[in-house]
Design brief:
mainly beta; Pnp Oxidase, Chain A; Thrombin, subunit H
Length: 243
């Protein structure tokens, strides 16, 4: 573990921080590892994927980094949000100090396999806002929008929509999403929470990423099994084509 951290700091490797807030949203930031001490790892200040993103000090976070073609992760926390880091005899840099871990383990980039649906005819998705008094219900006259699914996993999806329709969707905002998939009987009706909303360059569209949430006692298990079957079949088809 000590050798790995030493090598990462000597090379000033980039690393990814992930923090789950009280609403279940994943906040992600990127840092560059610069040095380490007996108890701390020193890095530059995080660059967050969301403009309003922030990771509080002393809250549990997970760090991911890649070294020598292998990906690693460990649990840590920010112990100092305002650490001055000396780069050389003439230069210092504002940064942070992270608690040095006791254990480092192998990591996967995603918990859930995400597949692109670009090879299918456009798959539409309908969105509706929850009822004001209850997030588990959708009002008959709820605001509605639509888009097209770009990629999908058992944990969420990414969709493309007109900027005028979903351009104002905020991180943490929830929508009921309904869609069908080729070869699957019946519609999927899920509750999604916005993770990212990014404008598509040189166009009028936005790409909105959502994670699926349980609602009205629905544990998501049945729907996620159906999504898992579709994704597994999709991967098998790709493998057959490559052969």
């Amino acid at each position: 573990m000590e050798k790995l951290i030493t090598a990462a700091c000597e090379r000033h490797l980039p690393a990814e921080l992930r923090y789950q807030d009280s609403d279940g949203m994943i906040i992600m930031g990127r840092v560059r590892l610069l040095d380490h001490r007996r108890d701390d790892i020193l890095a530059d200040r995080p660059q967050y994927l969301d403009d309003d993103g922030t990771i509080p000090a002393r809250c549990p976070i997970t760090m991911h980094l890649t070294l020598g073609g292998s990906r690693y992760q460990f649990d840590t926390s920010i112990v100092d949000e305002d650490r001055t880091i000396r780069i050389n005899d003439h230069q210092t840099l504002p940064g942070i100090a992270l608690r040095k871990p006791s254990v480092v383990s192998d990591s996967q980039r995603r918990t859930c396999l995400r597949v692109s649906l670009a090879g299918y005819d456009p798959i539409s998705v309908d969105l509706a806002t929850p009822q004001g008094e209850s997030e588990d219900a959708c009002a008959v006259d709820a605001e509605r929008a639509s888009g097209w699914i770009a990629d999908l996993s058992v944990g969420g999806l990414s969709l493309v929509a007109d900027r005028r329709v979903l351009g104002s969707a905020r991180r943490g905002e929830r929508f009921f999403v309904s869609f069908g998939l080729p070869g699957e009987d019946g519609e999927f009706n899920m509750l999604g929470s916005v993770r990212h909303n990014r404008a598509i360059p040189n166009g009028d569209g936005v790409r909105v990423s959502m994670c699926f949430c349980p609602w009205n006692g629905n544990s998501l298990t049945r729907d996620q099994r159906r999504l898992g079957r579709f994704i597994a079949a999709h991967e098998r088809r790709l493998l057959r084509r490559r052969r």
